[in-house]
Each structure stands twice: as structure tokens, then as C-alpha cells.
Amino acid sequence: MSLNDRAFIRYSRQIMLPEVGELGQQRLMNASVAIVGLGGLGQLCAQYLSAAGIGRLILIDDDKVELSNLPRQLLFSHGDCGQYKAEVARDRLVGKGTGDNSQVSAFGQISAKVVRLDGDNAESLLSDVGLVLDCSDNFATRQHINAACVALSTPNVVAAAAHFAGQLMAFDLSKSPDNGCYHCLFPAELRVSESCSTIGILGPMVGTLASMQALLAIKLLLGLPGLGWLHRFDGLTGEIQKFALRRDPKCAVCAEIKESNEKAYAARGETACLSALGEIDE
Amino acid sequence: MSEISLSLNGQLIQVPANASLLSMLEDQQITLDSVALVRAGEVVPKSLWALTLCEAGDVIELFGVVAGG
Ligand SMILES: [Zn+2]
Q: Locate the THIF-type NAD/FAD binding fold domain: which residues (chain A) (predicted)?
């Protein structure tokens, strides 16, 4: 399927990039992405990804818009207070595509799931997407998202912001096993003291992390590098640090998965060798 | 016993020459279950702290998880 004229014009500034091109744009338009959490991070990521032409977006959040959200969650208005964030976000993003060619933008392919992601439903909620954005606002949900992504072998792009501290990282055990998973870096038993509801945050601070997260997600969808690093952004000094992620060989979440993958690869390798030998014999 | 110096979150500290990352953190009275550790730009997973020796000139950073969004 090639891009029609309207799509070509709409996405021309993206297509112009050698890293994207027409093929890259088609990749984005064929991509399926879940966004968990429609707060400060998720509402902006959803806008960027939808506007970039991502084919299918699933918005997952069980929260309602509150007055105290409005200074940083710019997709929502005063009149949305009391409505479910996922549904408001879906309607607003669909509205942006309305009237345009149906092939353009994710029009009609944005769905809202008003449900709290937990250990029981995470895998089924995330089972049919190619990439997950962890835009949640608490440590427990982040662990559930990670466990599901590890089990499903789905790439997980994680961002977080509180106070003037931001963190960004991406995991994909199938492409980058040595970098481990979220639990390798932050085990579930780690003590956490803050979240946006208990610690202050400025809109542009969480917006900065959301923009970095959306950029990283688009890069990974295009097959560009971006896995394996933890970025720490200090909003007071403006400094960004970049650290290499390392798998914990004893990680309770990914150690077994990686072992079983390795055994599968080894078995496949063996079969390949045997059949190669067989061919030589014949 | 001989000591080596290393940088912990930008502070120069002295530790015994054969100290593991874990014993160094305990000496510094760091709350172990609240931090991740980076050494020379690479994350050192928690299960390796007891097995990894400090080296002179190490640059080590500790930080907590940020979970908000
Ligand atoms: Zn892990």
C-alpha cells in the first residue's frame, strides 16, 4: 500500500527525514501501540503518536479528569472534569482526524479502555500491540506492565517524572536481552517515596519526559537505535545523564524467560546445523 | 588495611581496598532497598553488589526510582 496524496502531504516533514522516508511512514501507519496512563505523560504521547500517523492506538486508564490535572494535561479542558480520561482523549484525538481522508491519521483506530491495569489483566490488555508506552503514575502498575511485556516479548518504553527528576528507558528482551527489564533496574521490593499525586510537578517537566518518550517510541517503531539506555533528566540543572542498562541474572521477572529463549534458540540452532549436515550428506 | 578513594554521588570517599559495593554502601549507611547503582556509566544490578569489588577511582552514582507521570 502506498501513501495517498493527502497522507503524503500531511506527513511530508516526517517522510523528508532519511531515517523515516515513505517506508518508515508506512511502518508507523501499520503500527499498533498501547499507552498505559493518560496523565501528564500519556496525554501528550497519545497526541504525538496519533498525529504522527500511528495506525492503532489503545488508551488505557481508569482515572477521571480532575481540576488539578489541567495545568499539565493539556489535552483536557475544564468541561472534561469528571469524565474518563481515556474516553476524552480518544474523542479528542479522533476529532483531530475527522474530515480528513480515512487513510490519514489514526482516525477510527483509537480505542479507550477504562480499566485499571493490574497483574491479572495486563497480559490480555497488552497482548495484541507491537509496543507499549508506560505512562503510568505508580510503581505497582509499572511492575505489572513490565511483567506483561516480558511475558509477551513486547517492547516497553518507560518514562517517569516527579519533582524535577525525570527518567526514560526502553526494554526489549528479544532484541536486547543483555539490557534486561524494568525489574532488573528497579526490583518490585524497592522503596518508592513519590508520585505525581504526592509530589509537585510542573507541566513542562512532565511534558519534556513525554516528548522524549514519544520520540523514543517512534524511533523504535522505525527500527532506529534507542534500546538499552537509562536517561536521567534533571529539570533544575537541565542536565541529562545516559547510563547503560544491565540485566540482573537473578531477576525474578526476566531471568527464566531469557533462559527459555536461549534454550529455544539453541534448539533451533541445533536443528539448523543438523539439517545443514543432512544436506551435505545427501 | 590500605584504603582506596572513589566518588559516590560526587563526594570523594575512602573505603577499604577489598570492599565490595555492598559493604561500601553499608559503611556509608545507604538505605539499600531504595536505590539503583551506576558505576562507570553502567547499571550494576543489585544481585551483583556483593560480588563486585570497589576499585580506586570508581565513579559511582546512586539514585531512586521515579514513578510519577
Ligand atoms: Zn529483569
A: 11-252
